[in-house]
Amino acid sequence: MQSIQPVPTDMQDVEAQNVTGQNPQLEQHQLVLEWDHLCYSIKDKAILSDVSGTVSSGEMLAVMGPSGAGKSTILDILAQRAHPTSGKMTINGNETIDMSSLGSYVEQNDALLGVLSVRETIQFAARLSLDPSTPREVIEERVSETITGLGLSEVSSNRIGNAVQRGISGGQKRRVTIGSSLVTRPKILLLDEPTSGLDSRTSREVLLAIRNIAIEHNMIVIASIHQPNWETISLFDKLLLLAQGRTMYAGPVDKLDSYVAQVLERPVALHANPTDHALDLVNTDFFSDATEGKNHINELASRWKAHESGFDSGRNTLEIGRSDAEKAVDPIHAWSQERRVAKQSLRRAFHQTWILIERNILNYSRNLLAYGVRLGMYLGMGVLLATVWVNLAPTSAKINDRLSVHFFSVAFLGFMSVAGIPAFLEERQVFMRERLNGLYGPGAYVIANSVCTLPYLFVCAAIFAVLCYWSIGLHPGATEFFKFLAILVLAVYAAESQSAVVAAALPIFVAALAVASFLNGFWMCVGGYFIKAVNLPRFWYFWAHFIDYQTYAFDLLVVNDFRGLVFDCQTLADGSCQCDYPSSLVSQGICQIRGDDVLNALGIGGINFGLYIGILIAITLVFRILLYVVLVFKKR
Ligand SMILES: Nc1ncnc2c1ncn2[C@@H]1O[C@H](COP(=O)(O)OP(=O)(O)OP(=O)(O)O)[C@@H](O)[C@H]1O
């Protein structure tokens, strides 16, 4: 048994010892992860029944079993992504575990940003996980070691790939996801199907690389794995074999064949792979009778139970004899707590926000599908308005056409924010993976997203405004033009923030698209253009109209354009003057109408420009806060 090291009490001590954020004193400290009698059910259906096991630092445990055996479920529980119905899990005897500060979980799906290269992806993961003071060379060395170990050197500068740009293969993506976790040097690495999509040679090489890093850095590795060849499974120290959520075997890999031969009385044939043989034995998927299958599993599970006590299942004896007091001051426990505190430090939060901003800039500038196509769309919209509403004469007859320019600008630009949902969902998946692995929190993510979205939307709105403002003939003057642009930017930013909230809460593209589109249609109806605000049914007027970003943006655009302009009215054959809105000039013998008369007729003549801008900003802020709140509570 290893001696227990003194606990570093001061955070500075920990940092001073190692700039990488790892504590070398503790790096070699033995960790024992133990789970006892775990049960997990969903709606009375037992998914896992009485599963126990243990694994120590430097060891690799394989979780195997037929499809639906409960492999992902046990990994979810060990990663604290699911809570067992009963049973407990401990680390060095302590039940208070914070897996996000100790471990990293590689789930089955590869959540990656398609436009980043392999090296960039792993580099960002390393930078996000390490202390801000870590020197570049240390990061680069670690990234290179991970890339080489996972056999990704040849494709290290290739992009991951997305729907428009083909990138690396599925198996290589799997390795990049593993690399993104491995490079953070967790003390416990959990991998769900790390070898799916890999051929047997690559599977072995990847697991060998993981094993080497695990041994060097004294990590615990637990991986679910399908049909490995004997060479590959031999890289693991232990095996947990499940079927229908029951334990079929839990012990050293090299004792599996003797177990099946002596206890199950089904020896492995000469030259056959013992794991294939054991998997065949516990697979009841193709039994014609379900009861027969259940009975078979009951029989195998009870044989395991009967022999478990007398069998050397590799249970670690580190904890035996340790008092509760000793467990309470376990250095790993203290280190995990300190690491959590360090992660919450303001300095680290700033550092991570900055890295996320850097990554977003790369993502947004390269993502042709998500951002380039949208830029093109705003350009097209600008050209459309410029040519359809070209040279709008300053006459009373054209006042409604003029109003429609402002409505259309706000409504259409706002509506098209739904085009940002796919890119947001891609980003959200990466955020969820990194956040659940304890790299950073929703605060850093929301700030980085908010900061990077703004300049992009500014460019979109500017392209649109430059193209259409002068050709339509809106209010002459640079001040009015820049106000027009500023209002559009605020409106599009509010709409974009709304779409982000919807997609954060409903991370299914079609559903998010439907809800965000409905909301934008709803805001159009109650904004005061189709039906004058004062004529809206009271039910809508008193709440929906006033929380609608389109209300404020439309009113502001109209006031900005109309205030100070004068429009010619029509002189009829009988010499009378006809204006489309009541004019204060006609009574003075001038057949014209002032823009302010129109504003008064619309009921927006007296609005406070600054206040409306403030409200528009406040609506956006509310959406951004909602985005944060949704991400705090949504764990998937
Ligand atoms: N949310 C859920 N609701 C109902 N049943 C579930 C749920 N999650 C898992 N299950 C069931 O629990 C069982 C174990 O699922 P799990 O995903 O852990 O299996 P697995 O061994 O990882 O399978 P595979 O190898 O096919 O990925 C399956 O029968 C599955 O249908």
From TrEMBL:
Origin: domain of life: Eukaryota
Gene Ontology CC annotations of this record: membrane
Gene3D superfamilies hit by this protein: P-loop containing nucleotide triphosphate hydrolases (3.40.50.300)
Subcellular compartments: Membrane
SUPFAM superfamilies listed in its UniProt record: P-loop containing nucleoside triphosphate hydrolases
UniProt entry keywords in alphabetical sequence: ATP-binding, Hydrolase, Membrane, Nucleotide-binding, Transmembrane, Transmembrane helix, Transport
GO molecular function, one term: ATP binding
Protein name in UniProt: P-loop containing nucleoside triphosphate hydrolase protein
Organism from which the protein derives: Rickenella mellea
